[in-house]
Amino acid sequence: MTATARAALDPILIAGVDVGGTKTSLVVTDHRERVLHERVTTTDPSSLVGQIAGLVEGAQHELGQHVGAVGVAIPGRVDPGDGWV
Predict the structure, then answer these.
(1) How many CB atoms lie within 10 A of CB 21?
(2) Residue whose C-alpha is closest to residue 35's, from 13, 4, 53
(3) Residue 59 class from Cβ within 10 Å (0-12 exposed, 13-18 middle, 19+ buried)?
(4) pTM value?
(5) Whether 85 contacts 78, CB under 8 Å
(6) Which DSSP category does 47 fall into?
(7) What is the side-by-side order of every strand in the sheet holding 67-73?
(8) Over the stretch 45-71, which tens digit does the pLDDT of each residue have?
(9) Is 3 helix (H, G, I), strand (E, B) or coil?
(10) CB 22, CB 41: distance < 8 Å
(11) CA atoms within 13 A on the CB side of 31
(12) For residue 79, is pLDDT > 90?
């Protein structure tokens, strides 16, 4: 079986990110909702998008598997026009 065919058969991993005023948490689960990876770090508002991307990339590296979806919970108002929080 080729790597591409195998990847197509692997269940998707899902990451959930909870951004707070002082800490940001990441959890990665599998299709059975089993927690495979957790990380909590201090929130860095000056580079939040990069911080979230780094957390997801770190989880992928540690797990050796691609994260196929990321959901982010963040406090505050979101401007629907431009997406700014």
Answers:
(1) 9
(2) 13
(3) buried
(4) 0.79
(5) yes
(6) G
(7) 35-42, 23-29, 13-19, 67-73
(8) 899 999 999 999 999 999 999 999 999
(9) helix
(10) no
(11) 5
(12) no
